[in-house]
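Input record (one chain):
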Amino acid sequence: MYDAAVRDTTIAVRAEATPRIRFDRHELAGSFGDIGTDLPLLIGMIAAAGLDSASVFTACFKS
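The corresponding structure, as predicted from the sequence alone:
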């Protein structure tokens, strides 16, 4: 009897603990923050290593 009660409780807790995936203004603001960090780094890598900028920004590399 005790084991069944414990299993039922853990299943209920696990189901409630999984968060919903959300996309709101905070996620949008974070994405712009990431662009503000990543873009200068990418431009610096392109300038320092002489990379093709079209390949870097579209992730299409010639083999």
